[in-house]
Amino acid sequence: MVDEEHAAPTGFTRHQNDANICTWGCVGEHNIVIASLAAGVYRTTSAATTASSLLGSLPSIRTGLLVSIGGGIARPDHERDIQLGDIVVSQPDGATGGVGQYNLIKARSDDRRERKGFLGRPRTVLLNALVSIQADHKRKDSEVPCFLQQMLEENPKMGKRSKRNPGYAHQGFENDRLFKASSGHVPGQDCRGCDAADEVQRDPRVTTDPKVYYRTLASGNTLVKDAAARDRIVADGGEDYICFEIEAAGLMNHFPCLVIRGISDYADSYKNDRWQRYTSATAAAYAKELLAYVLAAEVQETKRVLEVLQLA
User: Which GO MF terms does the UniProt record name (predicted)?
Assistant: First the structure.
């Protein structure tokens, strides 16, 4: 999704404790650096280590985005018909900074739940961009579908499908099935053996263009793959959760960022990997569009992340 890819900056020296392998480039007016978690390592502490190591090498970083996939919390009966491929963005509300750490809940004797701890908010420069992009999307379509199409045209291999590689294109509505929380997945490569009577019927969509939701994301150290556990966490948290993910909780108080997730499953036993590539692309495409609303001059006026951490 970068407009241009660069070599490492002249004179750049990686910190001795920084093991990140980075991609350098620009999107619009912004110079960016992309770092990923180590392969197969997905935990809150891993994300925090990746970010802190990056800051050791690049102390001038002023803000960040956490872009990846997540498990959607679909509630069609509550007018929240989130579907696979959709995008969720962490937006602060009166109770959270946009991310809630669901394992920091204390049970009270009166059967109420009390939140312990509070996660930080994204930088103001990103929240200002959120206001602008949401206002524009009320009167014109998102650029995400265009960016996805451009990606596939410039990288044809990404659109090719095989038995082991579903590719980075939309996977088809027939492969997006939501089941009741009381049901369970029948083991197999897909859901052919699952009881169709347990499937939740939803209004069909007329386009594959992803929808964007701005709400609270639930973060913790456990990968949620059970619908009953999913619903219990949502009930206990008392939050307007729309997505589960497992890295942001380790970042928000140490590397305040905006979290963008493409929905690749429904945090239940029906989880599979088919949608992961496509949804990672939808999240990245949204990040690209959002950066067009982030003013370069405002970024320059924003304190470096290291300065903020030193003041904390």
Answer: catalytic activity
